[in-house]
UniProtKB/TrEMBL annotation:
It comes from Solitalea agri. It comes from the Bacteria. GO terms for cellular component: cell outer membrane. Residues 1-21 form the signal peptide. One of its GO terms (molecular function) is siderophore uptake transmembrane transporter activity. Keywords: Receptor, Signal. This is TonB-dependent receptor. PANTHER family: HEMOGLOBIN AND HEMOGLOBIN-HAPTOGLOBIN-BINDING PROTEIN 1-RELATED (PTHR30069:SF29), TONB-DEPENDENT OUTER MEMBRANE RECEPTOR (PTHR30069). SUPFAM superfamilies: Carboxypeptidase regulatory domain-like, Porins. GO terms for biological process: siderophore transmembrane transport. It holds the Pfam family CarbopepD_reg_2. Transmembrane segments: none annotated.
Length: 333
């Protein structure tokens, strides 16, 4: 009888060894606001082991894989998350945070007097990198928008012309607040850079022909800027342009983040290479500094503080002073 017990004992031993060789991976999927996400697909790269997050955002699965692997998390509307994990038979508990994905929406379709204009299809979604890599824009939000269909540079006034409207009819909103002065300087017939760096924002939505009453002060178009939430990590950024440069230091704390940066712009070298119709006796140059503090006050609450200082200098000669006077005349009715 003891002889018959040997195979059974060996089988149980092998099963036990196999169970100890497996690694259990579990955790919860959340967004940047701390809300749980259901329906996310979690899997180990180049394997069939994985799971899907439930209504409470939690997931759990076991795997026979060993060593250093990558855990991939996918969910529609969010960027793909890739996280390194070490599989050694020890239970792994994870909290995975997914970032929202800004995608370009379809073009507005105009047919027989009917224009599609709802909150999801009326905006063109732009990322910071889209602004920075637009040829000739020099990381300026307004200059990059001038390359979109239906827009043009304002030749006689500061701002952005959209579909034939005046530049003053295009309004910019910072986290829902109307920006009264979004430009660095104001000169007749001279293009002006925007006041804000595109890397402050997680997304920029520009109207493509229609928008809701929420932006009623915008008669021609609306540019909606949504600032980032807590910074994911401590970083140092250096930007170099043909007309200047900048430096940004970001510090990530437990429930808050602080970002301090500075920028210097000088158009004199550019104007030496590319001759201008305007007669400059002092080409535009400016320097600025900014501070951005964010504090997470709860699961869905966020306190944001932004402060900026800027200073600039320029000089322009006019051959005919009457032309300059004409620009600043106030019409009477």
């Amino acid at each position: 009888m003891k002889t018959h017990l040997i195979p059974l004992t060996l089988s149980l031993l092998l099963i036990a060894i196999g169970s100890f060789a497996q690694t259990k991976v579990s955790g919860v999927i959340k967004n940047q606001k701390g809300q749980v996400l259901s329906g996310a697909a979690i899997a180990i790269k180049d394997s069939y082991d994985g799971a899907t997050s439930g209504k409470d955002g939690k997931f759990s699965f076991t795997t026979d894989e060993k060593g250093n692997k990558e855990l991939i998390t996918n969910l529609t509307g969010y960027e793909v998350n890739m996280q390194p994990i070490s599989l050694n038979g020890t239970t792994i508990e994870l909290t995975i945070t997914l970032e929202e994905e800004a995608t370009e929406l379809n073009t507005v379709v105009v047919t027989a007097g009917t224009m599609e204009a709802n909150d999801r299809s009326k905006m063109a979604q732009l990322k910071s990198l889209d602004i920075a890599t637009t040829a000739g824009a020099e990381a300026d939000i307004i200059s990059a928008l001038q390359t979109l269909p239906g827009t043009q540079a304002a030749s006689s006034e500061q701002g952005l012309l959209v579909r034939g409207g005046a530049a003053s009819e295009t309004k910019m909103y910072f986290d829902g607040m109307l920006i009264k002065n979004p430009y660095l300087n104001d000169l007749p017939d001279i293009a002006s850079r925007g006041r804000f760096s595109p890397f402050m924002f997680k997304g920029m939505s520009f109207s493509a022909g229609g928008y809701s009453a929420q932006y009623g002060q915008a008669l021609s178009s609306a540019l909606v800027l949504e600032s980032k939430d807590l910074e994911p990590k401590t970083t140092t950024g250096v930007s170099i342009m043909s007309v200047g440069g900048g430096l940004v230091q970001t510090n990530k704390f437990k429930n808050s983040s602080l970002q301090v940066g500075g920028q210097y712009i000088n158009l004199q070298p550019y104007y030496e290479l590319v001759k201008q119709q305007a007669h400059w006796n002092y080409a535009p140059h400016s320097y600025s500094a900014s501070a951005n503090y964010k504090l997470k006050t709860g699961k869905t609450g966020m306190f944001k503080f932004y402060s900026e200082f800027s200073n600039g200098k320029l000089g322009l000669n006019y051959d005919n002073l009457e032309d300059l006077t004409h620009h600043f005349q106030t019409p009477t009715f």
